[in-house]
Write a structure and sequence with these properties.
By secondary structure, the protein is an alpha+beta fold. The chain folds into three domains: 8-184, Galactose-binding domain-like (Jelly Rolls, Sandwich); 196-376; 449-680, PPM-type phosphatase domain (Phosphatase 2c, domain 1). It is built from 16 helices and 20 strands. It has helices spanning 8-22, 50-54, 173-211, 216-232, 250-275, 282-301, 305-336, 340-365, 375-420, 424-433, 437-447, 497-516, 522-537, 617-620, 632-641, 648-663; strands at 32-34, 39-44, 59-60, 75-85, 95-103, 105-110, 113-118, 135-140, 149-159, 163-172, 458-465, 473-480, 483-492, 544-552, 555-561, 567-569, 575-577, 602-605, 611-615, 673-680. The strands form four sheets. The protein has a six-stranded antiparallel sheet with strand order 3-2-4-9-6-7, with no helix packed on it. A five-stranded antiparallel sheet has the order 11-20-19-16-17.
Length: 682
């Protein structure tokens, strides 16, 4: 072979070997025979047998790289021969040979007998498939070894690529197995482990996105992870349980690999923009999408493997490398501008960017064959930086909770003192809450109208069941001169005493604003109430969803603050969601400064025998023993089947009977449940 130039990637192997020896992995050195020099070659045919090969004329070969150039068509069989004398110490012992990585495929013979093969040499009914990254270790039966000269024949199938690169040795089986294990771990096992981890991370972020679709960076992050996990199979394809080499051609497999790589790069760009809240012009987004789409299309349409090799390496240099540089520059710019998240992300992106640049420069520009690919090892560093950000957010959340626990008692006392003059009974309830949960429950029950008042023109029914003790749900009926002029229902985040106290604060604020600003738009009333609420609870970490209705005879005004939809059942039997299909109608949660905004107001008419249904998510999200939710669709279905002749209470009883049939009657549920049915009378 005669090539004495240093191999950079050996440094990594040697470091690992030193580590292994320090931890006791390696045993005492065993003598081996170096097979790296003294090879000869001859051009052969796919149908050749070892006997045919021995009859060919062999020429010396300087190095075992670019062997494809020795074949006139750069596609076919090149026989490689190595003759050596086996010392007597190896005779009769278990021996093996390690032949580094062989690209693309081989059949290896020892003294004319097959000892192993890697990849697939094309034959009748079988397609070419490369195992370019797998180290070859072939065990040799002791009776194959003879005194004197022994011959290794490698039937190397070349296809615009062809090489033997790495450690080439003959020796005792245990010694060869130890060295092989190191290389297999570095070249295959690490990549397989990384692919598995990335796949799990991707699926996890898909679940996060499904729960919160507005956070697109979770979707992009998941797609990056999944597509890169697919790309990683390029490094261990032959060890997957799917027998890929028997299911598709190697060209098809490589198309999947490189399309996955370009998809990862594309979603990497989208993730970076979304994660750093950068909005590119539409023409820029269209240009980026077009570049990646054309790159993937070119790869898919190429039919010749030789052209594919050239196209894929060229596209890596002009697509993948600029993508990494773009994202790196963008994150670096944001980091310089003081963006804390960008600075943390940059720490993980730097090693990944260096690995990608190394791969593109070494493999695509300098065209150095046999060097290890580092992108698959550098990408986890980027993932670590993202996970660090998530972990940091988790710690900050707990710090906020601890701060809340310290300050909440003081806020409660202050609020209680402010309300003493307005309501002595409430003052007593607030003071008692810090000492006695039972008293807190009693105060809350006295604060809420557990039985709806009677109103002319309306039949109202109510079901209210706290999860345990103090409830985070609250509701109110607004009247003027004995007439029903409004209904509200709300749900405070969390459970326990703190949520229960906030229900009383929020109910008072909403009641005051509803009655003091009768001539304003209903959405404006809710906005002013939200301002008062934020001023009262500050950065407490709690938020509130809810519905407010204002009633003027048969006209109903409706505002929804991120709450379960309002349902209406017409007298004729039809039941539907009010404003169904118009998600933009709903406003944000109440009580959060960062989510302040306008609340849309909807007007609709209720006729005689029409019924309105308001509820909290404790009803529709309650699950049965099979973990199936009761759901808004089932609630609508039951609501629609109820005769209009039933009273509001009878309708409510029928719905609850169906609810109990579905989830079972239990002493406790996972959330508070509140339902209000208001039926318009003649």
């Amino acid at each position: 072979m005669g090539n004495k130039r240093p191999r950079l990637h050996y440094l990594f192997y040697y470091c690992f070997a030193i580590f292994a020896s320090c931890t006791g992995v390696q045993e005492k050195e065993t003598q081996t025979i170096d097979l790296s020099t003294g090879w000869y070659y001859a051009v052969g045919e796919v149908s050749d047998t070892p006997t045919d090969a021995m009859q060919r004329n062999y020429l010396p070969i300087r190095e075992l790289l670019h062997v494809e150039k020795l074949h006139p068509q750069e596609e076919g069989v090149v026989w490689l021969k190595k003759e050596f004398v086996v010392p007597a110490m190896f005779l009769g012992k278990q021996v093996s040979v390690i032949l580094g990585t062989i690209n693309p495929a081989d059949e290896t013979y020892f003294n004319g007998k097959l000892i192993g093969k890697g990849g697939s040499i094309p034959s009748e009914g079988r397609q070419f498939f490369s195992e370019w990254n797998r180290y070859r270790k072939y065990d040799i039966p002791s009776d194959f070894v003879v005194r004197g000269k022994n011959v290794i024949l490698v039937k190397l199938y070349v296809h615009h690529e062809g090489l033997i690169e790495g450690v080439l040795k003959f020796g005792e089986r245990d010694a060869i197995a130890r060295e092989y294990a190191i290389h297999k771990f570095i070249r295959e096992d690490i990549n397989a482990l990384i692919a598995f981890v990335m796949l799990i991370i991707g699926l996890y972020h898909f679940l996060i996105f499904a729960k919160r679709p507005k956070d697109k960076e979770n979707l992009y992050y998941a797609l990056i992870s999944v597509f890169f996990a697919i790309y990683q199979t390029n490094f261990y394809a032959s060890h997957t349980p799917f027998n890929l080499q028997y299911r598709m051609s190697y060209l098809t497999f490589q198309k999947i690999i490189f399309v996955s790589l370009y998809a990862s790069a594309y979603f990497f760009v989208l993730f970076t923009n979304s994660f750093l809240e950068i909005k590119l012009p539409r023409i820029a987004n269209l240009t980026i999408s077009t570049i990646f789409a054309i790159s993937a299309l070119v790869i898919v349409l190429v039919r010749d493997y030789g052209y594919f090799v050239w196209f894929s390496k060229s596209l890596n240099a002009i697509v993948v490398l600029p993508t990494v540089l773009y994202c790196f520059s963008l994150i670096a710019y944001k980091a310089i501008k003081g963006n804390r998240i960008a600075r943390i992300t940059l720490l993980g992106l730097i090693p990944f960017a260096l690995c990608v640049i190394f791969d593109v420069v070494v493999h695509n520009i300098l065209k150095k064959i046999g060097y290890i690919y580092l992108s698959g090892l550098g990408f986890p560093a980027f993932l670590i930086s993202i996970m660090f950000i998530l972990a940091n957010r988790f710690v900050e959340y707990h710090n906020e909770v601890e701060e809340l626990n310290i300050t909440l008692d003081r806020k409660v006392v202050e609020r209680t003192r402010e309300l003493q003059e307005a309501n002595a009974k409430l003052s007593e309830a607030y003071e008692a809450m810090s000492r006695d949960m039972k008293m807190a429950v009693s105060v809350q029950e006295s604060f809420l109208p557990l039985k709806p008042p009677r109103f002319p023109g309306w039949d109202v029914a109510l079901y209210f069941k706290p999860m345990s003790g103090v409830s985070g749900d609250f509701f109110d009926f607004y009247e003027r001169n004995g007439e029903l002029v409004g209904i509200s229902i709300f749900d405070v985040s969390g459970h326990g005493v703190a949520s229960g106290l906030l229900t009383m604060v929020a109910k008072s604020i909403m009641y005051k604003n509803f009655h003091q600003t009768t001539n304003s738009r209903l959405g404006a009333i809710v906005e002013r109430a939200n301002d008062d609420l934020i001023a009262e609870i500050g950065d407490s970490g709690y938020y509130i969803s809810g519905i407010v209705l204002r009633i003027n005879d048969s006209i109903v005004e409706y505002v929804n603050a991120a709450h379960v939809d309002l349902l209406i059942k017409r007298g004729g039997g039809e039941a539907k969601v009010v404003m169904e299909g118009k998600k933009e109608f709903k406003g944000n949660f109440l009580g959060i400064e960062a989510m302040k905004g306008r609340f849309a107001t909807v007007q609709f008419k209720v006729n005689s025998n029409d019924s309105l249904l308001l509820c909290t998510d404790g009803l529709v999200e309650c699950c049965n023993d099979e973990k199936n939710q009761y759901g808004i669709e089932r609630l609508l279905s039951v609501f629609a089947t109820l005769p209009h002749t039933l009273s509001a209470q009878e309708m409510l009883d029928s719905i609850m009977e169906d609810f109990y049939t579905f989830v079972g009657r239990k002493d406790e549920y996972r959330d508070d449940i509140t339902i209000i049915i208001a039926k318009r009378l003649s």
